[in-house]
Amino acid sequence: MPKTIIKIRTWACHDCNYHQDFDVDDVALMALHFPGVEVGHCPACFQGLTENKQKKRTLMTRQTDETKKTTITIMGEEEVEELEVDDTSKTKDVEGKFQKRKLVKAEKDAYKQKIRDDVVKFNLMRCEL
């Protein structure tokens, strides 16, 4: 399976150019990520985190321009073969870093399954509501 590039649903504030990849009308997610920000409003504008530092209530809208949507890139399964991880079973070198080692078959299989799961998960995110 080659590298997968997925464009997902994105909401944007056209006032300050802030973008986010979850629904601004989702009460639970807005409360989790931006406590105190009114649902549907741009968190940057609402909190005065823009260039002019002025707080305002700007509504965010669904991004329709494909070039401005959030892009997720998921590595391909063939890239797993080349992955190296820290060998924590050995001691650190003089710079305080672990030596690298190739993945064993069980680790490769786990990575490949995670890639397959991620492709499914992120494909669901790009589907229209």
Unreliable sequence segments: none
Beta-sheet strand percentage? Answer: 15-25%
- Number of separate helices: 4
Sheet with the most strands, sense and barrel status: 3 strands, antiparallel
The run of helices and strands is EEEHHEEHEEH
Q: Give the averaged pLDDT, no decimals.
A: 87
Oligomer: single chain
**Which word captures the global form?**
elongated
Number of strands: 7
Radius of gyration: 20 Å
Spatial arrangement of strands, main beta sheet: 3-2-4
Element layout with pairings:
Layout: E1 4-8, E2 11-12, E3 19-20, H1 27-33, H2 43-46, E4 61-62, E5 70-74, H3 77-80, E6 84-86, E7 100-102, H4 105-126
Antiparallel strand pairs: 1-5, 2-3, 2-4, 6-7
Question: What do you see in this structure?
Answer:
With 129 residues, this protein is α+β, with helices and mostly antiparallel strands. The chain has one domain. The protein has 4 helices and 7 strands. The chain has helices at residues 27-33, 43-46, 77-80, 105-126; strands at 4-8, 11-12, 19-20, 61-62, 70-74, 84-86, 100-102. Strands 3-2-4 form a 3-stranded antiparallel beta sheet, with no helix packed on it. Strands 1-5 form a two-stranded antiparallel ribbon. 12% of the residues are buried.
